[in-house]
Specification:
Length: 220
């Protein structure tokens, strides 16, 4: 058994333990295995071990490796977890099953157009910049609920969840708590939060999916 497969099973076990610890239902949390920078030879064994949900942060990189993998392994669910440029909306709608990084009007409008054109509707999450970091993508927390409402009412988009990436140098708990509160206010069911260093904490705060890369595939 390769390293990534072994680490994949270890992460699965830790997720199950964190669900129990937090009195969450078994299987309440979806593991999104973040495979950015790794290629098909690294990813294939993890798929063969049973994983089907993967995250990528660049449209172009995902286009280079996932069409073949999707054909070889049925039932793959691919999440876009990196910033989306409006000129990449067409490719993103064609390839991804979940786009977690909707964060501005222009993207919402482009996605609406492409979904109508392609007749393919990925699930959509709004990214919230919970730390209000200037260099980071995501809508400001105070604008998040109104933005979800506009996505629904003005653009006709079904927004199913919220996503956040807490500041690297801060305790993530308050950020997860904020996302959970905003999710309730915006009436979304899904919360994508938690990475290799803090996914067990995120599960305690109500994450419905965690995005784990290096704890499975190794450092990048
Ligand atoms: C890379 C990345 C992850 C995974 O990070 P790890 O620390 O390797 O688990 C999660 N979410 C986003 C948005 C990322 O870009």
């Amino acid at each position: 058994m390769g390293d990534a497969v072994q680490q994949f099973f270890a992460v699965k076990a830790k997720i199950a333990a964190a669900e129990r610890e937090a009195d969450r239902q078994a299987g309440a949390v979806t593991l999104v295995a973040v495979s950015k920078t790794f290629d098909a030879t690294d990813i294939g064994p993890v798929i063969e071990a049973g994983q089907r949900v993967f995250g990528e942060n660049r449209v172009q990189e995902a286009q280079a490796k996932w069409p073949d993998l999707k054909e070889a392994f049925p039932g793959i669910e691919l999440h876009l977890i990196g910033p989306l440029q409006s000129n990449k909306a067409r490719e993103a709608v064609a390839l991804f099953d979940v786009i977690e990084t909707v964060d501005r009007e222009k993207i919402a409008a482009e996605l609406t157009k492409e979904i109508a054109k392609q007749g393919r509707a990925p699930k959509l999450y709004v990214q919230v910049n919970t730390g209000s970091e200037p260099q980071k993508a995501g809508i400001e927390p105070r604008e998040a609920v109104a933005f979800v409402t506009r996505c629904r009412d003005v653009h006709g988009l079904a927004i199913e969840g919220l996503m956040c990436i807490p500041p690297a140098d801060e305790n993530p708990g308050p950020h997860f708590a904020l996302l959970e509160k905003l999710g309730k206010e915006a009436n979304v069911a899904k919360l994508s939060m938690g990475m290799s260093g803090d996914y067990e904490t995120a599960i305690a705060f109500g994450a419905t999916s965690v995005r784990v890369g290096s704890a499975i595939f190794g450092s990048r």
